Amino acid sequence: MGSIPKLAFRRLQYSFKTNAGTYSHTLEKGFADLESKFVGVMKRLGEIIHVAKTGGVAQSLATEDHATLCEYIFIHMIRVPAALDPVRKGIEEIGNAVEQDFGLPKDPDEDQRWTVYALANIGAKFGPKAQDLLMRKIMRIEFFPRTKTSIITCDNPVVRAGNPGGLVFPETQVFFPLDQRSFVRLHGSGADWQLQDQRDLSIADNFNAMIIDVTQEEAYCSDPVHLQGLLRKRGIEATIVPPKFRDRPLGNQRN
């Protein structure tokens, strides 16, 4: 477990070695551009929430910020280990079969290259449609008192609930953690924008429980002791990992 600003990462997760022997970081740079836009969205959203907290009339989120937030949520459906690892496993199995049937040497760099290509193609093919479907849902931002609770996130942070058929159905809800004190809920149909100064802390507990359920290997929280308590309530033992170890590869257990 660790703090949200110091998440673990896998080195060269979205990069691959080219035939020339150098590494291509094109996809990672694309993610970085979107993340930079998201930082701006969060800054403006923070200002809107501050107005609401102080009794003012909060303005709606700008259309372009709404679009960026929905794109950011979609990216976290496909760039996470839960989505990427099965793709890599399938490609590695093909490589193993080729090696066995034809006697050709297996090339891990080739496996990584095709995995990244597959991820890029998924994003290009389904990204705009998924973003549009997310934007057609009602957006509700739940934010909580600063000292009362702590929202957690994980290595698989987009929670889908309701109709298992997909985003196209109004019954399908999507939840995503924004920061330590807020999360977004997309539900129903419509362009409505809702901002909720939430004082019912059971809402945060329910959200955190959903995040724990979809966690693959690691969960993160600004208050690791709080997270450890949540995990224990669900029968999961975990250890607190100091921030200086956050750049290690993800392990095989929930931390």
Average residue pLDDT: 81
Portion of residues within helices: 40-55%
In the predicted model, the low-confidence regions spanning at least 5 consecutive residues are: 1-9, 244-255
Main β sheet profile: 5 strands, mixed
Number of domains: 1
Helical/strand content category: alpha+beta
Radius of gyration: 20 Å
Can you characterise this structure?
- The chain has helices spanning 26-53, 63-78, 81-102, 108-135, 201-214, 224-233; strands at 16-17, 23-24, 138-143, 153-154, 159-161, 173-179, 182-187, 193-197, 219-220.
- The chain is of the alpha+beta class and 255 residues long.
- The protein has one domain (4-245).
- The strands form three sheets. A five-stranded mixed sheet has the order 5-6-7-3-8, sandwiched between helices. A two-stranded antiparallel ribbon has the order 1-2. Strands 4-9 form a two-stranded antiparallel ribbon.
- The longest helix has 28 residues, at 26-53.
- The protein is globular and about 70 Å long.
- The N and C termini lie close together (5 Å).
- Mean pLDDT is 81; it is low at 1-9 and 244-255.
Task: Please specify the SSE layout and strand pairing.
Elements: E1 16-17, E2 23-24, H1 26-53, H2 63-78, H3 81-102, H4 108-135, E3 138-143, E4 153-154, E5 159-161, E6 173-179, E7 182-187, E8 193-197, H5 201-214, E9 219-220, H6 224-233
Parallel strand pairs: 3-8
Antiparallel strand pairs: 1-2, 3-7, 4-9, 5-6, 6-7
Helix pairs in contact: 1-2, 2-4, 3-4
